[in-house]
Every structure is written in structure tokens, then in C-alpha cells.
Amino acid sequence: MKICITGGAGFIGSSIADKYIELGHEVVVIDNLSLGFKSNIPKEAKFYEMDINDKNIIDVFQEEKFDVVTHFAAQMSVRHSVASPSNDALTNIMGGINIFDSASKSGVKKIIFASSAGTVYGEQNEFPCTETHQNLPVSPYGVSKFAEEKYLQYYHTVFGLNYTIFRYTNVYGPRQNPFGEAGVIAIFALKMLKNEDTYLTGFGKITRDYVFIEDVVAANVLALSPEITGIFNIATAIETDLDYIYDSLAKLTHYNKEKVYIAEKIGEQKRSVCSSAKFQKLTGWQPKTFLPEGLPKTVEFYKSLVQK
Questions:
Q1: Could you tell me which of 43, 141, 155, 236 has the fewest CB atoms within 10 Å of its CB?
Q2: Is 141 annotated in the active site?
Q3: Residue 23 half-sphere exposure toward CB, CA atoms < 13 A
Q4: pLDDT tens digits for 26-84?
Q5: Which is catalytic among the residues 121, 141, 172, 246?
Q6: What is the DSSP pairing of strand 170-172 with strand 210-212?
């Protein structure tokens, strides 16, 4: 297949690009390099340095004639979305529409869309929650991701564009960008290895469902099948608080600074944990790497960055 990965210079997108190429697919990456790194892009992939709002995206789609588009490019920070909802909407909603519209006009057979399990549900009343949980986002980021889902469903209903929507919980692992506001494991790991100050929001009691990058990649391989359609959580169904993440990483990095607690930020959910039973039942997929194995692998990656 010929596969376009938007955001393919980023953490998740580039990891999936590596796997697709390993499996013999032809990969084209579209990324503006605002969050990703050119060094992440596989050398075998063709690269367009473009923003997803670029009106010339349609020309790329018509020239390349993609079979599948995996759409990861996004504004990813909940806090930034709270500070600038319009900027979040410009990237996530308008950029998404540009990608979906270009796909529908150029013969793309399928979109695999990266949504957000925690944020599209809002504060949960079901633990772990399924895909039928109510959608009441508490951040503009969650609103924009949910809106993109609805636009993609529109393109399916009206134009027949096939899709798989993956609602990811907190993805972590080697290659995650540690310099933004998203990705607490990457941020903590690098700061601890550098012996820099850090802090825990929500007084350490905020919970998340952490899913390892290799398990996410495996789900995206399965999603290439035209029969795998619909909305699916990609999650572990294990709820972990921030204190556990901090303590585990501190032990792995020999970090001894005193904990500093602060209140949660506006737009941050207090608890998030999701069930992936729907996807497991359909495909047999299940998470294979959990925090006790995934955290050491992640720390080793950031050790190599610090040592450079």
C-alpha cells in the first residue's frame, strides 16, 4: 500500500512509519516539524514539509494517490488549547477537514485517525470507560478531537470514505518529545536524568491509562485492513496515578529531589482509564507491555539523549 502519515516526524507517527516500511509499504510523511523532528523520519519515506492547513495539500494527495492516510498531525497540548481555543481549532478541526477533504477528492480508501480517549469523554462516570461513554470534554482539545471524529464520519456517510478512529489513552515510550507540556513520562524522565526541578499536578493523584508505543504500532498495523472500521479505545484498562509514575521514574533515574505538588490545571481531567475490549474482541489485539517493563525501556532511551 501507499500510506500517508501526517505528523510522521512525531513520536507516534514516526514509530508507525518504521513498522509500515518494515512490512513493505510505501510511506509518505507530511509534517511541518513544529513538534516532530526530521531525524525521526525513516530514510525510506518520502517527506513533504507542509502544514496540514496548507491549501496545496490537495495537490500532494492527487499526485501521490494514497491508499491509506494515517492522520496524527495535531495541536496536542490540553493546556495550550485552554490558553488559545481558536489556535487549537485551527489546527485540529480546520487542519483535519483539509486532510479529510483532500482524501475524499483523491481516491483515498481509508483514514486512520488519532483521537484522544481521555479528553473526548471528559470526567468519567464509568471506570474503565467504553466507547459508548458520554462525550463531555472539559478542554478545547477534547472538543476539537471529538469534532474531527464527527467530520470524518460525515465524509464516510456522504462520500463513502472508510475510517478507523483510535481513541488513545496516554501513549508513552522511546522517542516521545520531552520538551512540550504533553507526555508526562518523557518530561519527568528527562528532567530527572538532568537532575532538574519538576512538579506533580493534581497533588499526584491525577490518574491516567498509559499505553506503550509498541502496542499502539501493533493496533495501527491491524487497522490497515479495510474490515477494521469504527471507533476503538486503545488502552490498558489500568488506572495509574501520577505519584506512581514519579516514584517509579525517580527510582530508575536515581532522582532524589523532594516532591513538589501543585493543583491541577484548567482542562485537566482528574481520572482517566479506558477499556479496549471492543478492539480486542474484533482483532485479538491486546496490550503486551505494561509500566513495569515500559518505563525502563523509556528511561534507557532518554539516557542515550543525555549522554550525547
A1: 43
A2: yes
A3: 17
A4: 999 999 999 999 999 999 999 999 999 999 999 999 999 999 999 999 999 999 999 99
A5: 141
A6: parallel
